[in-house]
């Protein structure tokens, strides 16, 4: 039994060791991914329920590694946040999204692009300047850019977050609270924040048809948004039933596989034409 214990212990050490080495390799690959042009953005449509039109697109990063293949953002973004490389990656996202928004503008397509800002980026002193420069570089009007920030992105230093968000908002860029309802914060901060939109997390949307509590949470968020004069967007809409409930409750915008998965710009444009034809 003793030898068996020992070999299990050694196996454990070996597997932790290989996990650490794997993480190191991933970090190294991540640090080279920008230079090797391994990132691209996909766009997921946001449908305005009142007009029935696609009014926005969330930009979502994709990393295709030559050997690993697709690495999900939920896997590498936390690593990039941890080692700081999210700053550079985030700059690239901002630049690529503004470039795309400008292309759509020039084609006469009225699409606002929403970019996810990591809490790490948001806390970085250069964020406002970075945004301003990306808009300027691509000659993009501020109204075609939206930034999505999670609660954790501003809860650490609320006073400073209010200042930054106010300036971003005053420059004409819209602001959205992402994954709303999943954080631990109190709601009182909301009235102080210059935020245009609340984005309901997909967890609540998924379960709301079967689960009374989730249904109530979705309803409460929509009411809260309305009374604070914010628009409410639901993410993760997958079924007609969910859509019907959301519309009935007065949700403004829907995003989810029911409309489309995140797609490349060409496919996105095709969605716009399909919708017009319909
Ligand atoms: P998120 O910001 O909450 O984005 C929504 C996620 O839900 C996306 O996953 C999207 O593809 C997925 N989704 C949307 N509708 C549906 C649906 O109906 N069904 C299902 N199953 N999924 C749906 P994705 O693209 O894998 O991104 C995951 C997370 O990675 C994002 O969550 C965001 O936190 C982060 N992320 C993605 N792109 C970026 C980026 O450019 N910068 C930063 N900082 N984070 C990013
Ligand atoms: Ca988001
Ligand atoms: Ca979410
Ligand atoms: Ca998220």
Quick summary:
This protein is of the alpha/beta class and 278 residues long.
Describe it.
Residues 23-276 form the EAL domain. This is cyclic-guanylate-specific phosphodiesterase. It comes from Oleiphilus messinensis. It is a single chain. The chain is an alpha/beta fold. It is built from eleven helices and nine strands. An eight-stranded mixed β-barrel has the order 1-2-4-5-6-7-8-9, surrounded by four helices. Helix 10 (240-249) links the parallel strand 8 and strand 9 (253-254). The protein has helices at 2-33, 73-83, 86-106, 119-123, 127-137, 151-155, 158-170, 202-207, 212-227, 240-249, 265-277, and strands spanning 39-48, 53-65, 69-71, 112-116, 145-150, 174-180, 197-200, 231-234, 253-254. Helices cover 51% and strands 19% of the residues. The protein binds ligand C2E and calcium ion (3 copies). One calcium ion (CA) is lined by residues 179, 201-202, 235.
